[in-house]
Amino acid sequence: MTNAAILFSTEPYDAAIPHPMGRNSAGEGFLRGLLAHADVDAFYFWNARDQEQSELDALVARLGGATRPVRWFGRADRRHVAEAGALYIPTPELRGEAWARRAFGGTAYSLTGVTHSIAEAYILDEMAGLLLAPLEPWDALICTSDAGRKAVESLLEGVADYFQERFGATRIPPVQLVTIPLGVHTSDFRLDPEARRGWREALDIPQDAPTALHMGRFSLTTKMHATPMGLALQQASQRLGRPVYWVLFGGARKAEEAQAFQAAAAAFGPDVQIRLVGDTSAETRDSILSVADVFLSLSDNLQETFGLTPVEAMAAGLPCVVSDWDGYRDTVRDGVDGFRIPTMQPRPGLGADLVYAYAQRMTSYEDYAGATALLTAVDVGRAADALTALFGDAKLRARMGAAGQARARAVFDWRAVIPQYQALWAELSRRRRAAPPLPGLENPYRPDPFRMFAGYPTRALGPSDILSLARRFAPGEAAFLMETPGLRSPAARLPSNTEFEALMAALERGPRPLGELLRDVPPDRRPFLERGVLWLAKFGFVRLDIAQLRN
Fold this sequence. Notes:
Helices cover 44% and strands 13% of the residues. By secondary structure, it is an alpha/beta fold. The chain has 3 domains: 5-183 and 418-434, no CATH class; 186-412, Rossmann fold; 451-550, no CATH class. The strands form 4 sheets. A 7-stranded parallel β-sheet has the order 3-2-1-4-5-6-7. A 6-stranded parallel β-sheet has the order 10-9-8-11-12-13, sandwiched between helices. A 3-stranded antiparallel β-sheet has the order 17-16-18. Strand 11, helix 11 (309-316) and strand 12 form a beta-alpha-beta unit.
């Protein structure tokens, strides 16, 4: 059975935190889907951030618990990663782990990461850095949509062109990009007539009134601009000759963001009756879908790469009116599950000043993303056509809603998505097992300090240097010293007291070369004892031939 160790801390997989982002919802869905649907003998969870175990266990329990044994392991234990065969990282940040793996060779396990938002500077740097990291053909970066994959390809092609122009590089190994969509748990979503009646009464919406629902975080700068949706609803209202209602479900990280979003929504829609749902819990999210006739989301923002909310609406059986934008294009089939509304942005080459200002920190990421959104047009007339058609035709709504629901269950349920991850891990495992062993490689960006700073000391200690005993540890002295702050640091990874005592006992027979002393030490412990000799010399237990050292 194909498996992967999961790089685990609660934040990437917890949508119950205050002000969750889309990646938190996606991560929670993935972990819940893995626990429910992965065909594995055991789950491998790598607590690489040293988080409290009780917090990790609580999240697993909240998401349904594990139906198979769970093997937790800590920060330094890559042996269990190799046992699993692959490592899943919930971000595109693969390069650090690629170098960590390469120190021990490159064929121990495969690496997979996943993209979410890809326009922020640190993510751009991480993805660009993959071209110089020791990634192998048995590693992959998962993109959640075809549009997101094309964006990553564009970035990497530009960086590769620079390497060729600057350094004359002729061989730049590509980063393997694989498209696997995000998923939803489709059984969570359904249209309930009782919930519809209840919500409409609570929100003061007539039972027969045309009603659209928008779900998502309220942000004009990093989510989508609300005005085109309001304009389209206003036009639909005028064509129908009656008010239409617009339910807004979501939250914001800042109160002013929510206020700006709501103001933009209402700016051009005097006949659009806006209703705000204050409760943003998961339970409310699941039931509020029943209030609407149509789901409406006209995304225009670079922050988006996939977009879960249309799939959630499809899973419930709501027809969708969405923009023809990024991952929405992979989910809603135009004319089948709803309507995709054309979008347009400036041609390539007209945005260099925007990203330059962002790169030089003259503008924030929010301002950068918001500026590009302001320069992206959505066809409001086509959106109004779609809304008018759906509001006026119950049979069309039912047909499109049923088609979307069937598609969500067949394609986007985690039951269908998790096997795609396992199939990828299986293919990467096949490639890795067929590859010849790779030697360990020092990370040139993080060199051995004793190599980089070799010019600082008089010279380095070597195998031919003579050591003599100055004095042995007094009874209990070794344990005392190892507990004394400033004398022992866990980061220095000193030999054990037993190893120190054995070396001192050997020196009681007289001065000896370092190489001879190390001959009887197990090979895997020799580097630690060789370094530890200098600790003994530093604190007066061993003498070095200083005159010899100066030569």
